[in-house]
Amino acid sequence: MTGTKSPPKAVLTCLVVAVIAVLAALFTGGSKLRETAFDWMLGTTPVPPAGDIRVVAIDTKALAALGPWPWPRNRMADLIARIGADRPRVIVLDILLSGPGRTDAGVDANAALGSAIASSPVVLAALLNDVPAETAPKPPPPVLFAGQPAALRPWSAGGALWPFEPFAKQAAGIGIGSLAGDSVGTVRDVPLFVTVGSDIYPGLAAEAVRVAEGAAGFILTGRSQLTQTAARLEIGSISLGLPTEGSLRFRPSGPEDWAGRTVSAGDILAGAVGPGTFDGAIVLVGATAPELGTLRPTAANPVTPGVQITADAVTAMMAGTVPLRPDTAPVVEAAARSLMAILGVFLGWRLAPGRSLGTAGIAAGLWVAGCLAVLHGASLLVDPASPAIALMSATVISATTLAVVARRRAAAVVAQFRQRLAPEIVDRIVSKPGVSRVEGERRTVTFLFTDLEGFTAMALAQRPEDVVALLQDYFQGVSAIITAAGGTIDKYVGDAVNAMFNAPNDLADHAVRAIEAAQQIQKFTEEFRMRPIPHSLGLGRTRIGIETGEVIVGDVGGDTRRDYTAYGTAINTAARLEALNARLGSTICVGPAARSLAPSLRFVSRGIHDLKGIGSLEVFEPAED
């Protein structure tokens, strides 16, 4: 569309409104779209190596061998003791051990379990609820602020279900094991910190890392300039950015990743696991059997055990591959959406549809590639979807709107041409727009010339606007008759119309068509003269001359304007015949050549007349029906 006129203001207004609508749609529905895009992006990153992370699964196999859940506390004590014998860095029970639980007759199972917990560094799980409960059995580890305190808004709950107090007092730590999902339950983040009442507690994954690192507490160093997040979290030797929500976005793993780090609890209790399996490892114990109801959907798997989600979070923290969404990302993305939308309007406006969409697609692809590069290089999450969609949507809307405008303009131009040219000629031009010039040729053509009697004198006595309006209506009627008959309007000269038949398109009965068109023009003019305005202005009769002959026709003119016109004696003859009507008192004068090509029509001879520059010839007038 390069080089076209600027679209009208109304069109630009529509484009602006459309772009605003696109941006508004992205803002209102952007969260789900963005999170889905992040899922895809994270899927392109490698799963962090499991390293020393182990999962002990209370799976269907273990339940079949050892009985239904919950197991007696002495069995849990045995499980922890067997794991602890390998001296792991920490054992994390992703299980709520609330109350005294089941026990075997005559066995102090709670004492045995408490002793097992005390013998190893064990982290117990608590679960959030909205019911204010009694004070936690163990105070949370300290959260220290270095520098400007971070403005965190972590997950908050009124209360929690705490582990059995005797166990809690023996544990190395307590972490919140609750996981939040989105509107359809998909888990994408794990909480690193939550507030229970007025206290800040660590999430289960964060507490597992703290105990594994041997850290006394957590240190928040204020806003992180490196990752543009709310704070920098220090846990022993581990340092990572912490967003305002106090949560961690993890790269979800799938069943193919779980196999290498997972051991069945049944195998451990059966003595089928060799010594050293858990030496120096972070061990997470949790339910994986579907019947225990701990399966949650993630981006990688719709039925992911909660303990595997916690293991993914711990793995990411220990490997230092935590994907972060900078606090400045919304501003950057909003600016990108706006710029992309403006670019889309420009592309759709200035380029042809195919080129505009192709260019927009390349630009959108570059944005997505840039977001992937930022994730892989700096572990930062920037929305790849909404700016790209804003660009493509704006381009499509812009290109479509302007295409509709161009189509309407073209239709208007074609309609204007149809008033001056035969429909067949217009159709040929439209179907073959690349044919820019009609070469010269010899053709036998019938010419029709019209003129209004006394028009010049009448026009000088009237207001210019009345004269122009009158001619407009008159030419409209005459032109419609000529083009409907297959004729081509050569030109308008003053009040005269010069037309030709059989050029540029072939018309086998061109003389008959011209004569019948003249008769229709005669009837139209008589009716038109009786209308109020033409009658009040004193519009005269239309005189018409018609003759046929061989002429040269073709496109002539310069680079900026060309006319399809004809050269030959027949043209002058038709003009002289038109003027002869004034002397004969007739309306239509037909030359002998045209008369000979219309044997189906009846004529009245008006005698032989000498025409200036032509010579003597017999003149005919169509007979009245």
From TrEMBL:
SUPFAM superfamilies: Nucleotide cyclase
GO biological process, one term: intracellular signal transduction
PANTHER family reported in the protein's UniProt record: ADENYLATE CYCLASE, TERMINAL-DIFFERENTIATION SPECIFIC, ADENYLATE CYCLASE, TERMINAL-DIFFERENTIATION SPECIFIC-RELATED
GO molecular function per UniProt: adenylate cyclase activity
Residue ranges of every copy of the Guanylate cyclase domain listed in the record: 446-578
Organism name: Tabrizicola piscis
CDD domains assigned: CHD (cd07302)
Pfam families linked: CHASE2 (PF05226), Guanylate_cyc (PF00211)
Protein name: Adenylate/guanylate cyclase domain-containing protein
